[in-house]
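Q: I have two molecules that I believe assemble together. Could you output structure tokens for the complex as a whole instead of separate predictions?
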Amino acid sequence: MNQQNIYKSGQPIQVEHIFQGKKQQIRVIESDNKMVEQTIILLSDGGISAVTLEAVGVRAGYSRGLVSRHYGSKDGLFIRVFKYLEDWIEANCSHATQNIQGLDAINAFILDISNNINLHAEKYRAYFCLWFYGLESKGELNQYLMHVRNLREQKHLKWLKQAQKLKQLSRKSDLSMLADFVMTSIIGLIHKWMFDMGFNIELRLKQLVNIQLRTMFSNSHLFYSVNYWGE
Amino acid sequence: MNQQNIYKSGQPIQVEHIFQGKKQQIRVIESDNKMVEQTIILLSDGGISAVTLEAVGVRAGYSRGLVSRHYGSKDGLFIRVFKYLEDWIEANCSHATQNIQGLDAINAFILDISNNINLHAEKYRAYFCLWFYGLESKGELNQYLMHVRNLREQKHLKWLKQAQKLKQLSRKSDLSMLADFVMTSIIGLIHKWMFDMGFNIELRLKQLVNIQLRTMFSNSHLFYSVNYWGE
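A: Yes, here they are, computed for all two components at once.
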């Protein structure tokens, strides 16, 4: 036990004070949850421009001032909401790919999005709204997004390396090219879905796994790096 | 000759007036060109948020008022610039795919982007900046963008139908699925390039044509529509 702990434990415990502190903490968590929830609805329905600190406050039953004290600014709110959604998506992904390796993990990752995207369309729409907006924005949201994107890329490369070890992919194949094609295919399909509400994203993601990527992976010996393309 | 023409040709011709009108017209075209040019630079360097009517005016050597009179608003300016860039890209595309049919046209279309994207990085960056922003925006820009996207989709479907007739693709293959995979692959790669300046988009687009799409098209019998995916 270090000095600080001894000192702290030496203080008289004020149960009432702790209780009040806890109640306060619970209220903060509750109001944060409500505001995050309402921001997700606003983003999903009307995009970035529909979100104002005031609109979030009104919908969650708080003043603009409270929203502003919580998150500082609209960008602060966006970072909070993106982190919330990223945690949620990452938890889904980890669950779906648990104890799975190689190409099966990539397939499970995409099929999990396919299975969930219509059930949780609001969350996915809000997430990718912030994703595409983050491209444009400067500062903290952009940095966090780049960080998340890099982690996702590392994960895909890890799965592809496992696949190579498991002889699911040719030794010749260029893993960073394959990772780019897998990830940009997903982002491209989702971008189309954001535009076009009638687009059957669920079906296309299943076809991506069961047709497109299957064809790609079973021809992985063709996916090797060439820098010169003769005519 | 109808009534109106007779009436018009009956007016005394004021040469001086016509000359002044032409000079005025040339000045309008010149200032428009300058402002479009400067908007492209601003978009390419700093994205949507870098563009203000004032910044465009200062860079082009005009007042904010003149920019505002020209385009009405920032959105009006964006539509003008998008149309300008769309015409430019469409002209490139038409040139590249002239007298070519089927899969060769799709390949030529993508290789043309690959060959030009680094040479004209500013224009492509500005174009796709507006493209991704248009997703988010409401109103006229969004509508115009959807219109352009539909035309592009129709063009891809036309090429794929030609390919089927030319027996480059299996009769079984689902052309709208193939069109989605081609177009979303391009958009996905370009989206990554917008994020990541070091991304070798030129190489990846060439690999898209010479490896990814070649594999896809030569396995086109696998790309048929299935709505049920058994486990």
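A: One point stands out. The first helix of chain B runs from residue 3 to 9.
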